[in-house]
Amino acid sequence: MRDTSAPHPPAPAPGGLNGLLALAGRLAVRRRSVVLLLAAALTLLCALAGHDVSGRLVNGGFVPDSAPSARAQRTMESFGGGAPGFVLLARTEGTVDAPEARRDGVHLVSRLLTDPQVVGVDSYWTGSVRPRRAAPAGTDRAADALVRALRTADGHTAVVLVRLRGSAGGTRAAVDRLLPEVTGVRGPLRVDATGQAAALKDLEDQSEKDLRTAELIAAPAVLLLLLWAFGSLWAALLPLAVGAVAVAGALAVLRALTTVTEVSVFALNLTTAVGLAMAVDYSLFLVARYREERAAGASHDAALRQMMTTGGRTVVVSAAVVGAALAGLLVFPLYFLRSLAWAGLAVVALAAVTALLLVPAALSCLGEDRAGTDWFARRRFRGATEQGRWYRLAVLSMRRPVAVGVGGLLVLAALALPFHRAVFGLSDERVLPPTASVAGTARVLHTQLPAVTGSSTDVVLPHWQPESPRRLSELDAYARRLSALPGATGVRTVTGVYAAGRPVLSCPAHATDPAAVRVTCTDLAARHRAAAGTWVAVSGPASAYGPASTRLTRDIRSTGAPTAVRLAGPAAELADIKSAIAGRLPYAAGLVALCTLVLLALFTRSLFLPVKALVMNLLSLTATAGGMVWIFQDGHLRFLVGDFTVTGTIDLLTPMVAICLAFGLSMDYEVLLLSRIGEAHTRTRDTARATAAGLQAAAPLFTASAAVVIAVLLALASAQITVIKLIGVTVALSLLIDTLLIRPVLVPAVMALAGPVNWWLPPRFRRERSAVPPPVVPAPASGVGTAPGAPLDDRTPQAR
Question: Sign of dihedral through CA atoms 142, 144, 145, 150?
């Protein structure tokens, strides 16, 4: 029965956002056939434009181009050194010293050196060689201790280290060219690949497979959940249509971006997940509003108009808030994060615009029966009264707001507790499934040749040459100091090889020295000197991103050197990424917080509610971060989320993407809840009643939306790549915390404690607010938003 006790608010002003939304709704309804045909045509054109985008995406962009380690890595190309792009493991049933194995090994190195992206190759058979430079003729390379480290003790396996130049795109192209030619059976040798570039290639390939698998898993679950949420097959297909348009458009945008910048391969996974999530949310908000108006007695046309001016306003504000969350990633100087931000912004904007045009046009075509209005009104609004479970839950929370608030905070604190022991690193081949060839080859290397796989920090002394005895003495003293640092296992440079603060081999060698020593010193001098300066190679702990490697890099930076130095290598890259993120994080957080507060303040006409929403989201995200560490760093619940390799660290960049997504989706639900509470407060002027009625109206929507989105995210959790699994599980966990604890329990308790403060504005703005007509909100069916005089159980005075 419709509530008529409260006066009907005046009609909204024809201008402003309401006017634009009403105009868009009228255009979509009057030209519905044109709108639907244009949507189909644009989807097809965008799909054709972006069909080859996956082949243009790259896996990289983790280190800022201006970082010292990036500049040092470019300098290392002059030496033919630095971290190898990929590593070849050549195994034979005989010995790698056999003539046939040696011949094929040398031929393998020669083929690698012909590629323009290869700047240097280290192998057991040839030593360290660069393009246009051959190994000294007649030299017994096996006598060189540095070369002997590239062969296993049993003589059955040899290693080839391949160093590459160029950006991530150029490196990927070189890997695509070389690996098919140099891996597999090569005469008596069986050659397998591992290393960073090979792992990144496998990551890209596995990412595409995981995306297809996730789509196959998610499709039936999503369709069933949409049928449950919408109650009609035709209506359930609406969010899928909106999502298809948004995703196709975002793929075309990504394809255009690849022509001007490098775009991360993970943008593809993000586009699909976010596009479907936003399409479900916005379609559900609009269809639910239309059905409410029809259930309240409005005509078909009037319900469509009201849907656009109320539900449409919620969609616009939600898209803006989610976009603000993703825009924070643009502040960081890493194209990995920036490309994900552009992908997310494109798909959110397209989902909002498509929903605002496609949903009214489709509903106008479908009519009341096929849209499932009767079923929806009967099933979804049967409990939309003061006896509804969400209403009763809100009342229960507002009866004892202090106890509920403290209890909720304790639960969130317990969930957040593991975050204090978070250790951040970067991803390596261990994020791949254990059955991957790259991962298996890496395990063999770690087991049989740990010296090769240990971390290495490359110290570059730019434009500094040891040309005089004094400078040679300075370089020798510097190398001794570096080799004595905790965690350093060896140092190589022009003046020799060092360990534990003492020289193992001193150079330049005298003419009376053995031939092997003369050759080694010649190689050291040739390799560690170049026009760009002098190179000092420091070998370190086995784990490139572990705490020991981080400490060693920090100690190297603080060790006195003959001149200013630059550091390259995994640990140096990690330190530079941390520095870049720490330097920009306050600006990113400030931008997101400011945009969110301003948007919500304009939306709610309140100063307290935006701050409350931001604090609630921060509490939710902190608890989510603790759960992420407990699962992925500590290795719990692998039986539930799928098996993965526990490395003892969390990838530094992936959680930032997950947190931004979780923040945006949580704010999406917050906007919906605040809109319903604000509408109820406009009718009743009673905070407690408005909060309970608003939760009763909004909770079925955001729980249905969360169920669909969680199904999509858990399909991502089936991925074989740990970083994709982490995003899916982390965001799903955030939505569970948000929909089960934050919105239905903590928000009513805080609203009850705040009382009139919820709606406080300075007098100047309050006068302006009174001049702005409130939105038209017919009272929902079955008594949601009952008369102000109706009892609301026994509440404390502050609940009003």
Answer: negative
